[in-house]
Design brief:
- The protein has 22 helices and no strands.
- The protein is mainly alpha-helical and 416 residues long.
- The longest helix is centred in the middle third of the chain and has 27 residues.
- The chain is globular.
């Protein structure tokens, strides 16, 4: 289907341009209130790729027939969008968030700086590294929920919010490389190339830890004078203290979903049980983030549909580069396509050298914070933090600039 391949690439380009134009749609919504609903919809970053995926399937049905369009849509693998949806909702449940908050607070009390400064540093350093155990989407969800009231609020300069967002996205991307199952771009190649967690720690993990610590420390130092001390818990919060058993059950749901991350029938069944449990003990819950998680899942599913049409031009680029050029090529390509899709295409190439394999994955994870589509957890961070920005939307240009310096630091460490 050569014509469809070209159409798919053109629509993918339109989606990329749309991603960088969401701020424009938000401004149009304010200027033209009669059509504000439509402009607000098109200004949602999470809607972009789902919208253009619908356009692609519609055009495909018109060009090659409805049955072939449906066949293509059904041939895509949607496990990752479904998993991100489920893990976001479970990880953002009040008992899980309160456990992680307590863990961060306990570490922060021993720090030789103000507690709020230590909390921000831990959210930007420790939580992304925990992502190697609980997966990157879960770490992104927890970090975003905790940082929202500390950093992404009124009173913090806009440029500093983008700097913190860039550090968070880059640290999440590289922080999940201590194991072979937590980072989507690593997961795509781990089985094919026989990379286990011991390999990841010795070749990627220690470098990732250094990069994460440098990035988190640098942005926290700049942020520290703008941070307000957290208010003590209200009597109502203390009265709603969560029983240890309820917290343990929530953590068990989280751990089990992570363990069955590649088996959607299992983790979706667990998710239905989780919904029932939260309803039964609703007095210990806050509203679940179902809308935000669904939008993120829609975004990733759209990326799966649109990305599946890009292999014809992406794979020759990846296969034709020498190791060092491959690192920088992957770093740049990650900004315009999902890094997991990029490494998956690399896994299909026969006869890649060990150094080329390393450089491909290193470049893909180093560039995972540059854009919203660069790494699967990024849309989750966008969905949870956009209310803290002007116009309640996050500009792609601001994110790119904010992620530039932490990306350079991560890239430098991974090139060691």
């Amino acid at each position: 289907m050569p014509n469809i391949d070209i159409i798919g690439a053109i629509l993918f380009a339109f989606a990329l341009v749309h991603t960088f134009s969401t701020k424009l749609f938000e401004r149009l919504a304010h200027r033209h209130p009669r059509h504000a609903g439509l402009f607000h919809l098109l200004g949602e970053v999470e809607v972009v790729f789902g919208f253009w995926a619908v356009v692609l399937i519609t055009v495909m049905a018109l060009v090659v027939g409805g049955s072939q369009a449906i066949e293509y849509a059904e041939s895509r693998q949607y496990t990752e969008p479904l998993f991100v949806f489920v893990i976001m909702v479970v990880a953002a449940s009040r008992p899980v968030v309160e456990v992680i908050k307590a863990l961060v607070a306990s570490f922060a009390r021993f720090a030789p700086v103000r507690t709020v400064v230590a909390q921000v540093w831990l959210c930007l350093a420790l939580v992304p590294l925990i992502g190697s155990l609980i997966t990157e989407p879960a770490a992104m969800t927890l970090a975003a929920l905790m940082l929202g009231s500390l950093v992404f609020r009124a009173g913090i300069p806009e440029w500093l919010k983008y700097a913190a967002l860039g550090v968070l996205f880059v640290n999440i991307s590289v922080g999940g490389t201590l194991t072979s199952f937590a980072a989507p771009p690593v997961l795509m190649v781990a089985a094919t190339w026989n990379w286990d967690s011991a390999f990841m720690v010795t070749h990627f993990g220690w470098k990732a830890v250094i990069a994460v610590v440098i990035n988190a420390t640098a942005v926290t130092l700049v942020l520290r004078r703008h941070l307000d001390d957290a208010e003590p818990a209200s009597p109502e919060d203390r009265e709603r203290r969560i029983p240890a058993l309820v917290s343990a059950i929530h953590l068990a749901f989280l751990a089990t979903v992570v363990a069955f991350a590649h088996h959607p029938v299992i983790f979706l069944g667990l998710f239905l049980l989780f919904l029932g449990f939260t309803q039964a003990y609703s007095r210990y819950q806050t509203p679940l983030i179902l809308k935000e998680a669904l939008l993120v899942g829609f975004f990733l599913a759209g990326l799966v549909v649109l990305g599946g049409m890009q292999q014809w031009w992406l794979q020759p680029i990846v296969s034709g580069l020498e190791p060092t050029a491959l690192f920088f090529g992957a770093l740049g390509l990650t900004a315009i396509t999902d890094n997991a899709a990029l490494t998956y295409l690399g896994s299909l190439i026969e006869g890649m050298s060990d150094s080329a394999k390393y450089m491909l994955v290193a470049g893909a994870v180093a560039g995972g914070g540059l854009t919203v589509i660069a790494n699967a957890p990024n849309p989750a961070g966008i969905a949870l933090l956009k209310q803290g920005f002007n116009d309640e939307s996050i500009g792609a240009g601001g994110l790119l600039l904010g992620a530039l310096l932490p990306t350079i630091i991560a890239a430098a460490m991974l090139l060691l």
